[in-house]
Amino acid sequence: MQILTEPRAMQQLCQSLRCQGADLGFVPTMGALHAGHLALCHRAREENPQFVASIFVNPTQFGASEDLSRYPRSLETDLELLREAGCDAVFTPDARAMYGDTDLLHGTWVDVAPFNEMWEGVTRPGHLRGVATVVAKLFNLISPSRAYFGEKDFQQLHVVQALTRDLNFPIEIVGVETVREPDGLALSSRNAYLNEQQRRAASAIYRAMRAGVEAARGGETDVAALGRTMNAVLEAEPLIQPQYVAVVDAENLTALQQLDGRAARILISAHLGKTRLIDNMAL
Amino acid sequence: MQILTEPRAMQQLCQSLRCQGADLGFVPTMGALHAGHLALCHRAREENPQFVASIFVNPTQFGASEDLSRYPRSLETDLELLREAGCDAVFTPDARAMYGDTDLLHGTWVDVAPFNEMWEGVTRPGHLRGVATVVAKLFNLISPSRAYFGEKDFQQLHVVQALTRDLNFPIEIVGVETVREPDGLALSSRNAYLNEQQRRAASAIYRAMRAGVEAARGGETDVAALGRTMNAVLEAEPLIQPQYVAVVDAENLTALQQLDGRAARILISAHLGKTRLIDNMAL
Description:
2 copies of one chain form a homodimer.
Chain A: E1 2-4, H1 7-19, E2 24-29, H2 35-47, E3 50-55, H3 75-84, E4 89-91, H4 95-99, E5 108-112, H5 120-123, H6 127-142, E6 146-150, H7 154-166, E7 172-176, H8 196-217, H9 223-235, E8 240-249, E9 264-272, E10 275-282
Parallel strand pairs in A: 1-4, 2-3, 2-6, 3-4, 6-7
Antiparallel strand pairs in A: 8-9, 9-10
Helix pairs in contact in A: 6-7, 8-9
C-alpha cells in the first residue's frame, strides 16, 4: 500500500491508474477509522480493481468553536486497517498541502446553496461548504470512478451527490448503509468523546428513530405526531439534549408535514454534554 | 471536426483523447467568435496535439437586467472559423444539457470569494460566480491539459486561475494577450452593439490607458494623478460614461494608492449607451 502526502504525487498516481482503463474506487475519511469506514472500504474493494483512501481532518469544515483540535487522530492504526482492507494507496496530506500558505484564507468555495438553509447547514454554518470544497478538491486529485460515503451523514451524502451532478464530475457516488453498535448507536469517530453514562444514553437516538418507524408502520402519517413519539423517547433520557428531530423528503431533505408515500427520512441531531451526534433512518 | 451537444458524449471523447497520453488544449467561448478567440485557438493549436473548443452562452453569468437574450449568436460562422483554426471537436450544449431541468435553479456554485468584492464582482453581482461555475463544469467535462483565456477579461482570468489552483484541477491556465482593432479598441463580441458614433468614441478607452501608461513612464507614481490623467481622456468623449478607472496590483487586483514597483494593471469599465465595455493594460 502506497502512502502519499503530496497532492501532485497523488494526482499523478491516480491519473495513471485511471488511464490503465480500470475503475478506481475512493473512500475519503478524516481518519479515526471504525467499522463504518471499513464497510466503505470493503464495498470499494469489491466493486473496483483498485481503490484508494484519504485521511484528512479538513479544517474548513469545522466551525471556530468546534472540535477540530481535539478530533481523534490515530494514523498508524488507520493505516494498518486500510492495509488489511486491501487499500492500494492512501493520501494523507496536511492542511498546508491542501490549502497552501494561506491556510484558511482559502479563496474558492464550492457551495451547494439549497442545503445551507436546512439541518446541518443551519446548525453548523459553513460546515457543508467546507465539506463540498474539500470533496471537489479530492475528486480532482484522485479522479475516482466511484466514491463511497456513509449514509450516517445523510445530508453530506446529498451535498456530495448534488455537487457531483451539478459540476459534471464523472464519478458515481455510492451511499453505504450505516454500521451500528449492538444497541443501535451509529458508529462515529465522535463516539469516542462520550463517557460511560453518555454512551449508554446515546442509544436513545436509535430507539427514538425505531419508535418513529414503528408508529409510521402502525399507520401514523402526521409528522407532528411522529415527532412527539420520537421526542418522548429522547426526553426519557436526561443526558440527551435533542437539537432537531425531523421527518424529511428523502430526495431534497425538505421537512414533511404528512407522510404521503414519498420516500421519507428521519433526521436527528442531539447533544450529550459537549458531544454532538447525528443519525438518520429511512421511514 | 466533431460537433457534440451532449455533455456525456463530450466527456467520453475527451477522456479517451487524454488517456492516449497526448495533451489536450481547450478554448471555452460564448461564440460570436472574433480574432481574439482565434488567437486563443492558434495558441491552443500550437501547444497541443489536440484541441477542443466550446460554444455556450452561459445563462448563469448574466444578471437579470443584462444582455443574455440579445447576446450575439452566429453558430454556423463560428463552426467554420473553428474548423479553419484546426479545432478537433466543438462542444455546443444547450442550457438544459448543462443545468438540467431546473435550469437556473441550479444548486451548486463555485465561488472565488475574494473577487466578488471588487470591480466586476461589485458591478455585476453573481457574474463571476456564474463564470467560475460553468468553467468548473467544462473542466470536468473536457479535462484539458491547458485551457486558454483572453487577458481582455482580466478579472475573469484571475478567477479561473484561482479556482483551478484552489480546487486542484490538473490544468494549466494560459492567458493570451488582448487583440485590438487598429484604433486600439479591444475586440469583444459586445462591440457589435455599438453604433458608428459609439464605435468611434470607444477607442478613448484605449487612449486613456495609453495616457496612463505614458504618465507612469514619465515618472508619475501617484495613482490618483494617473486616474485624473485617464479620466480626462474619457471625459473628452461625451458618448462614454466611465464606471471604474482603477490601477490595481496585477496579482490580487486590489487597488493601489502608489506605484511601488509591483506589477500593476489599469482596469477600466465604461458604458457607451446601453453597451458596457471593459478593458485593461499592464502599467
